[in-house]
Amino acid sequence: MTVIDELIQKGIISPNLAHEIIDKISQDNSISIDDLCISGGADPLEIVKIREEIFNIPVRVIDTKNINFDILKYVPQESVERYRFVPLAVKDNVLEVGIVDPEFTTARDAISFIASRLGFPYKLFLISKPDFDAVVEEYKGLSTQVTQVIGEFSQ
Asked: C-alpha 118: how far from its chain's center?
């Protein structure tokens, strides 16, 4: 059963919204199912819980006020934005990675590649789209800080 089917079955989205989502995604697969569901009134945590049931991947809620900047260096911002996953922590030499949509197989391939290059095994956690967006904003803030420091240094 797909995430969309489960969202309908549990009454989180209407069948009409599901058809709209499927139509939009068939026209542009870069659109996030989560964004469309959330804009239609779905609770982001409900979407994550359904994915947890389907894929048997644990959920991690990110404390968006206390994101560890040091962990962000493990994955380039470009990869984060393209594949919709974020590094969460390194615990016991295991890279913990938060992913929005585990059905996005290209993202899982990218995680495997990055983790192998870093020399870490990895563990996946599901995260909500708003938590993902908050981490992306931290990357952008970090880029701005680096640019400012470089500018000050070159003066």
From this structure: 20
Pick the range with the lowest mean pLDDT from 38-42, 47-51, 65-69, 149-153: 149-153
Q: Are 93 and 79 in contact (CB under 8 A)?
A: no
N- to C-terminal Cα distance for the chain? 59
Tokens (6 digits) for 6: 């489960």
Residues making up the chain, counted from first to last: 155
- C-alpha span between 24 and 35 (Å, rounded): 11
The SS3 assignment for 82 reads: helix
Give 70's DSSP letter.
Answer: H
Using CA atoms, how far apart are residues 4 and 2, in angstroms rounded to an integer?
Answer: 5
Take residue 20 and report the two structure tokens written for it: 């709209």
Contacts 24+ apart (CB under 8 A), 76-79: 77/136, 77/139, 77/140, 77/143, 79/110, 79/114
pTM for the model stands at: 0.85
